[in-house]
Design brief:
By secondary structure, the chain is of the alpha+beta class. The protein has helices at about 1-20, 25-45, 60-65, 105-110, 155-170, 245-255, 300-305; strands at about 70-75, 80-85, 95-100, 125-130, 130-135, 175-185, 185-195, 195, 200-205, 215-220, 220-230, 230-240, 270-280, 285-295, 310-320, 325. The strands form 2 sheets. Strands 1, 2, 3, 8, 9, 12, 13, 14, 15 and 16 form a 10-stranded mixed beta sheet that branches. Strand 4 and strand 5 (about 130-135) form a beta hairpin. The radius of gyration is 31 Å and the shape is globular.
Amino acid sequence: MKTLKGMSALLLVGLMLGGCADSSDSLAAQKEAMTAAQTQAVQESGNGATTEAAPLSQAEILAAVPTTVTEEFTSSEGTQKIDAEVILPEGTFMTGILEPRDFSEKEIKELLKDSKFVDDVEQLNFIMESDLITIYNAGYEKNQESESEEELQNAVEYQQLANELMQQLGSEQVVKEENSYHGKNGDVYEFWTTAMIHGTLLEKQSYSYAYSSSGTLIDGKLGSVSINADYMIKEENEVSLLGFSDILKSFETLMDSGMIAPAPSGQTVNKIRLCYMAESKGKNYTFYPVWNFEMPYVADWLKDGGDDPHVTRYVVLNACTGELVEHHIGGVE
């Protein structure tokens, strides 16, 4: 109806122009009148049109992610329960390329010359390999005899120190596992790290971790550290994330199609974590955000030994597309 009204306006102007064709009005004035009528018609006909909503920003999508999820998805193979905490790191999620760090003895000495972890950088020894560098202090004794089976009471403080040491070495890796005891030469804190990007966990496709390092502190000082294949960001760009409800729909669709199967022993997904996945591309890695659906799991061959459950990546979905990246049942921790 609005379109007809606009057409009427055009017809009216046309008649007016035809009736005064011989008048003294200039041709320019006639054109102006016609243009005004056309504009009115377009505006009126467009008032009822539906405008497409602008896509949500990454921040808006992440703000809508719930803190917990309770769902059940059923397929011909059974039912998979989800009763999960959603772990959502802070920050903007990116995709990009990681390249190997090119370590040198000179660079490391420069990084540690004013460090509280080293009294004298000239007392450091180095073992340089293609994808591993080991740094250890003169006089460091590996595998010290423990004088007590009790863990150190201040292990949390030592963990913070180990993370600080990795930062001083220019690495984003953080402590994942630890062991501490009183040794004959002082308090011994042993640690193993895991890779991170912008403070968010980085995992590697089909592996339990992307890359890792290990080290030992003696009374808070550097005993040794072995940095295994550390990587730095070569390039990166912000990504568009799929809405979380669409991620759950993708999970359901994959379950219905048989692409993923329910856990055979009825385990429930108890954590859903947004993190990064790395894929090898020659000497480099590409990385992108993923949703990890995690569950506690004990392999059958370990149950008789009384082992506690460990975390396994059950299903991994691409956070940008919802596509299946990995599906494991007890394979990759």
